User: What shape does this take?
Amino acid sequence: MTPTSAFILYAIFAFGAAGLYLLLPQPGRSRTLIGGLLGLGALVCFFLLLGARVIRADSSAVFFYAFAAVAVAAAARVITHPKPVYSAVYFVLVVLAVAALLLVQEAEFLAVALVIIYAGAIMVTYLFVIMLAQQAGSPVYDRHAREPFVAVFAGFLLMSAIAGRAGDYPVPERLESIPVSASAPDAPVLPPEAGNTMQIGAVLMARYVVVVELGGVLLLVAMIGAVAMLRKRVAAEGFRASPRPVGQVGREVRPF
Amino acid sequence: MPGITEYVILGAVLFALGVIGFLSRRNLIVIFLSTEVMFQGVVVTAVAFARLHHQLEGQAYGLFLLVIAAVEAGLFLGMVMLLYRRRDTLDAQVWSVMHG
Assistant: This one.
């Protein structure tokens, strides 16, 4: 990345940060219109700059810019919307856009898994908890952000640091043309027509078997932990607990 | 076709947005939605580098990240329900007793 384009990028990030600062829920008069315009302008400039870097425009470039714009705009709404339900729904939009970007990058299995697990399972759980813990009206902690300027400044610094180091990577060849087994000496030899799912399965089973098992154990532990954390003792109908003598408490262990 | 740089910058933008949300919002649920946004940025970057190096390890890491996200969501939402039962609010600043 040349210094000039890097500085233009920093300027765009600064504009975006200013817009984000104005968009974050704060007390006092509403400045969301100015902030939204500023943020939208920064978004448009950002994608114009990125688009100028692509000399050969083809269909996947169009998809990239469209879905990247959706992802960034929806992510900005996730963190600025005063209502958590809307934040969750905007996050589903982020997940869908990211899944589309993974499809553009020929990561079909991961894209589908992302939609099923994130947009399907995790977000439904989030929505359930939001509904259970919903407060009447719009509580003050949703309307007032905590230290918005410091947070936006920290994000801006982080962003500039990462983007400054991003470097100019070459445009890669299509993944399908490279046999995966060439990169992994212990991977099984796959037929040339093997798709992304089969290749991922080969990588997982050949090199990351222990990690897959650990993932299963981790999920089990988390499930048990969540159940144990949330269980509530409820007195059954007509049940009267007899006071236990000292020294007997630990001996009658029942499953919860 | 967009190169890797665009994907890396996009992943960084998503990650930074998540960081800003994590630092500035006060609702516990929105705080953890922000961490999920950070996860999305990491997935984009991992897959982009997988394509750069012609290896599927980045995509495998993306899958493991999905597992971690599911674990985190389960435990975290349980924790939120627990905290909500105790104080009847989702405000993170209620729990700043150790703040000093």
